[in-house]
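Before drawing any conclusions, I needed to go through one protein's amino acid sequence and its backbone structure tokens, quoted below without any editing.
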Amino acid sequence: MAKVSEMIAITYFKKKDPKLRILLSKQHKEIMTECCFDWLITDQKVACEVYAMHSLYFLGTESDWILPELQTIIVANIHQRSPAYKARGKYVLEKIEKFNTSQNSLKAD
């Protein structure tokens, strides 16, 4: 399910598929967010966690509270986790920093 969540998030946010834009409601995004955070904070396989953190990154581009929470969880866990978790965690942290920088520059203009 985490992989499916990631695929939906990528299609919705990155590819901007018009069909999915109509079908994915605010409630769907809330459920995806809740599930992904559950997968990150509970004992799950690494693949499930990395798909969840990538999904949360995309969901966080629309919601102010998700990215800071995601960043906190990744930073707290990254040093004690597997190489796959570390690699995806670093990637997502870099994307969060870029997103925050671009948002700050938009606010400054």
Notes: DSSP finds six helices and no strands in the chain. The longest helix spans residues 83-108. The chain has one domain: 2-108. Residues 2-108 form one domain.
